[in-house]
User: What shape does this take?
Amino acid sequence: MTGPERRLPRCEALVKALRHSRTLRDLAPMECGIGWPVPIAVIQDGGPRVFARLPLFVLRPDPAGGADLFTPFATATLDWSSGRLVEYTDLRFKEPHRSRQEWAHPIGRFPHPAVEGLSNAGYCALRTRLFSLYDEFFAAFSLGRQPDAATASGFRELLGRLLEPCLVPSYRRLAPHFSRQYLTGDHLPHEG
Assistant: This one.
């Protein structure tokens, strides 16, 4: 990066720290992609505690450009206030009823149609904007509140554009409440 280092939204910085963590290096394949966070708020010790659950999936680059995406194989959950990894769940172990074939073959491609015409800088700008909206979500949840309507609307729109459509069924399975609230666009695939 040239010039002064840009300040990352907190959520983006947490994802970046997870990517470079020893835990992820030890448990995940090198071509691990990290999905968009799912906020989880729980009441603990009389107040709200907020966590970010991140789906992990294989992202296999194609020499011709783009990359194949695979079904999430694990989730990593971070404590929002400290950034500490509080849970790593291997979905292949947790969901033994699912066929091994589900993780063996690509389910989609990146870039997907909603972002394929963007420049790298344009995509990164939208990505950072979405992470900024996540920061607003996590801040509201930390106070026991819901984000305001304008933030929620902008979040829905941007997440609907940036989330890889092939991963939507996984989000619906991993986070049904979050998905019902924020993955509401008609352009998103539905399971079943």
In short: The two ends are 44 Å apart (CA to CA). Helices lie at 10-19, 22-27, 91-94, 101-104, 120-142, 149-162, 168-174, 176-182. The chain is about 40% helix and 20% strand. The longest helix spans residues 120-142.
